[in-house]
Write a structure and sequence with these properties.
Layout (H helix, E strand, L loop, with lengths): L4 E12 L2 E12 L3 E5 L6 H8 L7 E6 L8 H4 L3 E4 L12 H10 L7 H7 L14 H13 L5 E5 L7 H16 L3 E6 L2 H7 L2 E6 L2 E6 L1 H6 L4 E6 L6 H7 L5 E6 L2 E6 L3 H13 L5 E7 L2 H9 L7
Parallel strand pairs: 3-7, 3-8, 5-6, 6-7
Antiparallel strand pairs: 1-2, 1-4, 8-9, 10-12, 10-13, 11-12
The protein binds adenosine-5'-triphosphate (ATP).
Protein name: ABC transporter ATP-binding protein
Subcellular location: Cell membrane
Keywords: Antibiotic resistance, ATP-binding, Cell membrane, Membrane, Nucleotide-binding, Translocase, Transport
């Protein structure tokens, strides 16, 4: 990976009237990496990305994309940067995918072959105009449009939203191939497992600021607690279990009959838990000790229950 970041944002602020969409956000994207920006609806992800793309101007702060200022150096950046907007916004609805992609290819010096690209993103030789395509097909066209010019850097706003599971996996494979070819990928997503599996670097944003960032492993290992999961009859007395466990343990019934204990797990804690179950005539089914997932960390950071991602 090159030392110069592909994207560098310092103290970015963007307001819409009284709404602070972005409120002092700073981040760096390493060249050749996949960076996932996650956060609840309205967190400021799209606004940040659109400023990087040159579509919006910041109120203050500094943004550098491939060392350039996107609000001034758009002409120099356009051939080098691919952009996928949410739901393929901005495409002419009467165009067919191949027409649109061929048109975009002509704007670039060394474009990809359009037929090959359409096949790679799962469009085959789909001939219907864009307005007749399904949401998932439009997503694929938008992804192909971002890639056709062989960009060094791509910004993808929710690239797998609305895709079926097979198409989502195939998109992940494509993004991993791009990274192997040295392309920098910045994406937003509401799928925390997508960020966890795919991204080298995850940035959690809320209320226009970065709450936490790091590799998925760093973000989850920074939390000392592990989690024990088990199944049993619904509506167990979690307060009684909680009282039996050491201070700091958190017990909750996630869904009826599915329990989670978040704590520093050691053999003694496990023994206390199973003794409590034995004393209450409960067979703890599927008992598992595991690390907390990125989703656990995310929900804790943004405040569980405040907003569904
Ligand atoms: N053009 C605009 N005019 C006024 N307010 C706007 C405008 N664009 C965005 N906002 C507001 O700025 C805030 C951040 O929006 P943004 O689209 O950046 O969030 P997001 O994190 O991308 O959300 P989502 O996950 O729902 O796409 C929201 O409160 C939104 O309503």
């Amino acid at each position: 990976m090159s030392a110069a970041p592909a994207v560098e944002i310092s103290s970015l602020v963007k307001r819409y009237g009284t709404v602070s969409a972005v409120d002092g956000l700073s981040l760096r994207v390493a060249a050749g990496s996949i960076t996932a920006v996650i956060g609840p609806n309205g967190a400021g992800k799209t606004t940040t990305i659109e400023i990087c793309e040159g579509f919006r101007r910041p109120d203050s702060g500094v943004v550098r994309v491939l060392g350039l200022d996107p609000s001034r150096d758009g002409a120099a950046l356009r051939p080098r940067v691919g952009v996928m907007l949410q739901e393929g916004a901005g495409f002419y609805p009467g165009a067919r995918p191949a027409e649109l992609l061929t048109h975009l290819a002509r704007l670039h010096a060394h474009p990809l072959d359009v037929a090959m690209l359409m096949s790679r993103v799962g469009l085959g030789d789909l001939r219907a105009p864009l307005r007749r395509l399904s949401g998932g097909e439009r997503q694929r066209v938008a992804l192909a449009a971002a890639l056709v010019g062989r960009p060094e850097l791509v910004f993808l706003d929710e690239p797998t939203a609305g895709l079926d599971p097979a198409a989502r996996r195939s998109t992940w494979a494509l993004l991993a191939e791009l990274r192997s070819a040295g392309v920098t990928v910045v994406l937003t997503t509401h799928l925390i497992d997508e960020a966890e599996r795919l991204a080298d670097h995850v940035v959690i944003v809320d209320a226009g600021r970065v709450l936490a960032e790091g590799t998925p492993a760093e973000l989850t290992s920074g939390v000392s607690d592990d989690v024990i999961r088990f199944g049993g009859p619904p509506r167990l007395d979690v307060a009684s279990l909680r009282a039996a466990l050491p201070d700091g343990a958190v017990v909750r019934e996630v869904t009826p009959g599915a329990y989670e204990v978040a704590a520093v797990v050691d053999p003694r804690l496990l023994a206390t838990l199973t003794s409590w179950c034995a004393a209450n005539d409960i067979l703890a089914e599927g008992l598992q000790v595991g690390h907390r997932s990125l989703e656990d960390v995310y929900l804790e950071l943004i405040g569980a229950g405040r907003s569904a991602p």
